User: Which sequence fits this backbone?
């Protein structure tokens, strides 16, 4: 195992101070190498620790420290130093080769083989180097030979480590500060004790020590890093930010500091700041696929989907087996309206990692947007997921100790990744306000996301018990649900993000149901019921597409008008002299087939205009313009408006006479909001549940005349309204009265229905009866 010592000509520095520090550090490393080669390991170690106290990520000092620890039979302590060296210079062959040798010495041959594979990719080992490593791996006597003292080897110039921001401050300030850091620093054993406390999870003691360290040595970056990470680990997120930001100033190339800050700001929804720090983490580890994915995910959250596409295409070229990249690429393509490409990428992610259930769910959510797939194919794909999920989740609990007393108080659990300002939460909260008052029920929440906002705070008040399960394994969550004695577990996510279907597959509760979050089957045999209403799922129409039995409410969910809703205005067509069609659907619903149909309508109504709200940043919707132009609709007939806050978004409806729905995944919340603003939506129903979503709200308000069963009927109905503006104006002015008279505005009745429905499900289980369709007459 070769020790590296920098023997080189000083590279030009940006300032005399930087050059002087480089010369000083070089001299320390030379002296340390001499001590090492002459067997004075304690003296060498002290010098390496001195350098690392100033620059904890210094590649050569980290590497040589690791080699020294191996040489002095402290191999377990060497791994962080090897990691730091390789992280700083992943292309340095000698680091990898010595790391592999250390793994062999420690008899970790499986890890050594994996390291060799990585070294081939990152350091581009030549055939001879690979062959030598393989020979050492299969040579059982190698470990005995490795304890000899080897001659020092040449290394990369130290000046490289002193560039790129490693030294901060003006030319006249760098060297004095550096000298102070060399002269005034914590003893190595003090840092070791802190690290030991951290690794043994003695967080209070470690935090106290880290605070003292930052007070005594304010220029010691590792102290600030430790303090920040300790506070973060204890959930003291706001307190962790200042020390981590101080650490990033002192350790600008430290991956972990950048990554921790990025994660904090991501959790707080401060996406721009998260992006900045993820970019810093990527700069520290440019070849790290996970970091590149994290940065792209934050950009995705900011709806810059074209950037994400470019980043993930590059990543899939660089690391073609990295399956999460195909998933994010598929999601970006879906947002750009390129559904068939999206499904192909998502399928690739599943093919590469069949046991990665999140990729399966993302794919299934994607196929619901694909017009080319039949209802049979979509159902078959969901059944395949169910089989994979239940196989991976085995064994499921085959019995439950819940008391079979039919009239006792029931423990009802709700599991969701959407307990924050999300459409699911807006539907759920009005019901919870009444359900929580039902003394026959005890409500439990299983919060499966890091997101926490004012909506979360309000939701918590309606539950008797609240558990955060975001970071817990499925088995642990399942056992928690069983220990809580949950009688009926309600999934609110389906195949959307942050779902817990793998937990449900273990059957932790005797009765399980899916509701609100996803317009389709879970595909799981372990889920017994799907909650809906007759307008959403006409009896018998969709039963063959569900593994669950349908349980009917009078309304699937209520509607809560947004707090800052503008009033309904007069029909704009009466003022403009032409009709304006609109859409506020997500861009990922606007496929080329959708644009083709809308263009046919615009050609048939040559004076009409198209208003598209909720659009991503300019440039992200160029494909829509291109698709319209291909069908003969010029840019001058189209208005694009970006996403906006709720009041502005609702006010945009003042410019729209009739909304046009997308297909095959119709608008849900967007249709309800448009109706609240007096604007009806023309929709097409089909053979799958997602096509029924807009028809559900229209039929609840008695507006079945806006529902079509095919494209020709859709165009005929749209043209009818272009010629009957007074009738359309009358509907607009009376729309909120329709809401007031519908079940959508009576969450108390829905809560009563739900409570009775839970009781029927429970009574059937107590009687040993299997799940069955429960109609309105059954509750």
Assistant:
């Amino acid at each position: 195992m070769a020790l590296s010592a920098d023997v080189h000509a000083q590279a030009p520095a940006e300032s005399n101070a930087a050059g002087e520090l480089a010369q000083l550090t070089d001299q320390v490393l030379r002296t340390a190498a001499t001590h090492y080669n002459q067997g004075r390991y304690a003296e060498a170690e002290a010098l390496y620790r001195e350098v690392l106290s100033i620059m904890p990520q210094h590649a050569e000092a980290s590497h040589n420290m690791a080699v020294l620890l191996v040489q002095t039979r402290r191999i377990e302590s060497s791994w962080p130093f090897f990691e730091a060296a390789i992280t700083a210079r992943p292309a340095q062959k000698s680091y990898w080769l010595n790391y592999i040798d250390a793994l062999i010495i420690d008899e970790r041959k499986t890890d050594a083989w994996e390291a060799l594979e990585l070294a081939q990719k990152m350091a581009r080992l030549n055939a001879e180097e690979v062959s030598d490593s393989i020979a050492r791996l299969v040579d059982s006597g190698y470990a005995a030979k490795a304890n000899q003292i080897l001659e020092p080897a040449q290394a990369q110039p130290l000046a490289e480590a002193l560039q790129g921001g490693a030294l901060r401050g003006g030319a006249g300030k760098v060297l004095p500060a550096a000298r102070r850091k060399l002269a005034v620093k914590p003893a190595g054993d003090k840092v070791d004790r802190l690290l030991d406390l951290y690794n043994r999870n003695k967080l209070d003691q470690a935090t106290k020590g880290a605070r003292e360290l930052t007070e005594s040595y304010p220029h010691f970056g590792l102290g600030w890093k430790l303090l920040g990470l300790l506070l973060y680990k204890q959930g003291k997120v706001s307190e962790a930010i200042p020390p981590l930001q101080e650490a990033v100033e002192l350790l600008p190339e430290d991956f972990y500091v950048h990554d921790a800050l990025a994660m904090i700001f991501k959790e707080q929804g401060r996406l721009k700041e998260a992006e900045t720090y993820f970019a810093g983490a990527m700069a520290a580890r440019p070849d790290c696929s996970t970091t590149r994915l994290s940065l792209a995910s934050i950009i995705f959250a900011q709806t810059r989907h074209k950037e994400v596409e470019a980043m993930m295409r590059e990543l899939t070229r660089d690391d073609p087996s990295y399956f999460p990249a195909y998933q994010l690429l598929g999601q970006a393509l879906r947002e750009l309206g390129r559904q068939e490409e999206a499904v192909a990428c998502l399928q690739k992610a599943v093919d590469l990692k069949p046991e990665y259930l999140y990729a399966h769910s993302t794919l299934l959510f994607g196929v619901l947007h694909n017009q080319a797939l039949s209802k049979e194919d979509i159902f078959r794909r969901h059944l395949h997921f169910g089989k994979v999920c239940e196989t991976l989740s085995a064994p499921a609990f085959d019995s439950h100790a819940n008391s079979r007393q039919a009239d006792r108080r029931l423990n009802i659990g709700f599991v969701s990744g959407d307990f924050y300002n999300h459409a699911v939460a807006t539907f759920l909260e009005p019901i919870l306000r009444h359900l929580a008052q039902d003394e026959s029920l005890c409500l439990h929440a299983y919060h499966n996301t890091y997101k926490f906002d004012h909506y979360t705070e309000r939701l918590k008040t309606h539950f008797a018990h609240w558990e955060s399960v975001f970071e817990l394994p499925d088995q642990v969550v399942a056992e928690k649900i069983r220990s809580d004695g949950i009688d009926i577990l309600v999934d609110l996510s389906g195949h959307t993000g942050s779902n817990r279907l793998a937990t449900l597959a273990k059957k932790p509760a005797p009765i399980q149901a899916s509701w609100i979050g996803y317009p389709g089957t879970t595909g799981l045999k372990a889920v017994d019921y799907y909650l809906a209403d007759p307008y959403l799922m006409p009896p018998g129409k969709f039963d063959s597409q569900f593994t669950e039995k349908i349980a009917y409410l009078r309304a699937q969910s209520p509607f809560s008008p947004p707090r800052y809703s503008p009033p309904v205005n007069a029909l704009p067509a009466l003022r403009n002299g032409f009709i304006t069609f609109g859409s506020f659907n997500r861009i990922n619903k606007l496929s080329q087939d959708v644009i083709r149909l809308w263009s046919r309508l615009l050609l048939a109504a040559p004076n009409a205009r198209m208003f598209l709200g909720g659009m991503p940043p300019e440039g992200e919707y160029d494909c829509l313009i291109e698709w319209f132009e291909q069908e003969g609709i010029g840019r001058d007939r189209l208005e694009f408006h970006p996403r906006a806050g709720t009041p502005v978004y609702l006010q945009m409806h003042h410019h729209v006479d009739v909304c046009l729905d997308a297909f095959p995944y119709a608008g849900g919340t967007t249709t309800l909001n448009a109706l609240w603003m007096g604007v009806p939506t023309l929709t097409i129903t089909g053979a799958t549940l997602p096509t029924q979503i807009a028809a559900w709200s229209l039929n609840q308000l008695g507006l079945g005349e806006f529902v079509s069963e095919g494209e020709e009927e859709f165009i005929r109905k749209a043209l009818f309204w272009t010629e009957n503006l007074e009738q359309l104006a009358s509907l607009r002015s009376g729309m909120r009265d329709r809401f007031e008279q519908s079940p959508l505005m009576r969450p108390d009745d829905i809560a009563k229905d739900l409570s009775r429905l839970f009781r029927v499900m429970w009574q059937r289980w107590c009687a040993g009866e299997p799940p069955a369709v429960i109609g309105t007459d059954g509750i």
Q: What stands out?
A: Confidence is low (pLDDT under 50) at residues 5-15, 140-184. The radius of gyration is 31 Å. The first strand starts at residue 410 and ends at 416. Residues 188-392 form a domain with the Serine Threonine Protein Phosphatase 5, Tetratricopeptide repeat fold (CATH 1.25.40.10).
